[in-house]
Here is the input.
Amino acid sequence: MSAPSVTIGEAARATGVSAKMIRYYEETGLLGPAGRTAAGYRVYSEADLHALRFVRRARDLGFSMREIADLLALWHDRSRASGAVKAVALGHVADLRRRIGELEAMARTLEHLAERCCGDDRPDCPILDDLAGGEAPEPAETGAARLWRGRKQG
Here is the structure.
């Protein structure tokens, strides 16, 4: 007797992964091909659902498709060393911290540009000037230097 299987719609509901993404994961080889009914419909076993939940959780944590493929391979390899898994996780942490730093730098730059913008009825705007190709201001610039530079440009 074979294990019960579910349709792609039921798999999507059970795992929180859309049917479109399930098909994509199969097409890219992240997941193996689904079983098929005599009519050609995809069907998924409990093991398939478990793998989809694994992928969903990894995506929720921001792992890339390549990292997820590596983690899935490690998950299926019962002779793996946990150090290999830890290395993937710590590499991802380092990437997240780098991206957080980049986002914080962007926020500082935008805050600085917003400080320079009067936000009144006049049409001149340092934010738009910067986006149009002006030099990016230094976020650490002091208020006095910013004021002097603004007068110098004006």
Summary: Residues 82-116 form the longest helix (35 residues). The helical segments are 8-15, 19-27, 46-60, 65-76, 82-116, 126-131, 143-153. The radius of gyration is 25 Å. Residues 8 and 19 are 6 Å apart (CA to CA).
